[in-house]
Amino acid sequence: MLSRIKIRLPVGRPRTRPAAVAADKAYSSRGNRAYPRRRGIKAVIPEKLDQAANRKKRGSRGGRPDTHDPDLYKERNTAERCINRMKDRRGLAFRFDKNPAGYLAGLHLRGAILWVRSRRPA
User: In this structure, what DSSP letter does residue 58 have?
Assistant: First the structure.
């Protein structure tokens, strides 16, 4: 999924490498942390308690704890709320479209509607 991300800034071509990636504890596996690290992306993923305990149990062979920026992690809430607003429509929430192209078209349409509504004066 990260390989398909394109970030649009006000000027210039779309970037394909974000500054940071935020995820919850469910995505704290070694592979999910290694992919952003290889691409030079900061991974803002908190460590699970059992992973931290296993790392500490190994002592000096367990490695250093992964860095975690709590302030940047709090901004993940904004993306979560946006996703929940996109899923207000039943078709997207329950994925009635069976082919991926139709579902992606629905996501683009809902994103455009939310963007237009946010630009309209209140």
Answer: T
Cβ contacts of 48 within 8 Å, gap of 6 or more: 25, 28
The tens digit of pLDDT for each residue in 29-79 reads: 888 888 888 888 888 888 888 888 888 888 888 777 777 788 888 888 887
Q: Where are the domains of the chain?
A: 1-68, 75-122
Cβ-in-10-Å burial (0-12, 13-18, 19+) of 22 comes to: buried
H/E element, 43 = strand 42-44
- The angle formed by the CA atoms of residues 34, 43 and 40, to the nearest 5 degrees, is 65
The tokens describing 47, both together, are 């460590």
How far apart CA 104 and CA 73 sit, in angstroms, is: 27
